[in-house]
Specification:
The complex is a heterodimer of chains A (107) and B (112). By secondary structure, chain A is mainly beta. Chain A has strands at residues 3-6, 9-12, 18-24, 32-37, 44-48, 52-53, 61-66, 69-74, 84-92, 95-98, 102-106. Chain B is mainly beta. The chains are: A mainly beta (107), B mainly beta (112). The A-B interface holds A 33, 35, 42-43, 45, 48, 54, 86, 88, 90, 93-101 and B 33, 35, 37, 44-47, 50, 52, 57-59, 95, 99-105.
Chain lengths: 107, 112
């Protein structure tokens, strides 16, 4: 399964809304996670099951979609949200696939 | 609290071998499949290999098939990745992961 994220880079001003997209080459049902990664750090789980926020994740982060089309929305960008975001499918327990990432940068 | 702690990374020459370990705690290790993911410098995340909870089933990315071996010791709550015939393009941070949980990674550098 190939995961495709868009855009590659998103320039957003603090306080604005950011919408990130992730598409799967075939249905992954709701077996989709979103991760945030900052330089020098491990990926941090934001969303699993396509729309469930992980423990401790602020409610400005929301996920939606199922099947082949998914969206991560950050409702009002804070300074700490500027990072790279990856989607990941885990429809098969043994084989994970990641999108290429979307870099959210300060406009 | 779930914790995954990788070790065993370092500098190795092309063609050499290295074994990574991942010590798990905070959950019932033998109930979960485990996975290795890597990230080359400045690049994205790449799934490497997974092993079932019992260790009976494994899967590998084509890029490492035949060179890497994943295994686990459920009595020691430890995951392993034996890496042979290492190449420069295997240089990466290697992460141990369980569904939704990741370690902090260990750096493997393949260079002469």
């Amino acid at each position: 399964i190939v995961m495709t994220q868009s855009p590659a880079t998103l320039s957003v001003s603090p306080g604005e809304r950011a919408t990130l997209s992730c598409g799967a080459s075939q249905s992954v049902s709701s077996n989709l996670a979103w991760y945030q990664q900052k330089p020098g750090q491990a990926p941090r789980l934001l969303i699993y099951g396509a729309s469930t926020r992980a423990t401790g994740i602020p409610d400005r982060f929301s996920g939606s979609g199922s099947g082949t089309e998914f969206t991560l929305t950050i409702s009002s960008l804070q300074s700490e949200d500027f990072a790279v975001y990856y989607c990941q499918q885990y429809n098969n327990w043994a084989t994970w696939t990641f999108g290429q990432g979307t870099k959210v940068e300060i406009k | 609290e779930v914790q995954l702690l990788e070790s065993g990374g370092g500098l190795v020459q092309p063609g050499g071998s290295l074994r990574l370990s991942c010590a798990a705690s905070g959950f019932t290790f033998n109930n979960y499949a485990m996975t290795w993911v890597r990230q080359a410098p400045g690049k994205g995340l790449e799934w490497v290999s997974s092993v079932s909870s019992s260790g009976a089933s494994t899967d590998y990315a084509d890029s490492v098939k035949g060179r890497f071996t994943i295994s686990r010791d459920n009595s020691k709550n430890t995951l392993y990745l034996q890496m042979n015939s290492l190449r420069a393009d295997d240089t990466a941070v290697y992460y141990c992961a369980r569904q939704y949980y990741w370690g902090q990674g260990t750096l493997v550098t393949v260079s002469s």
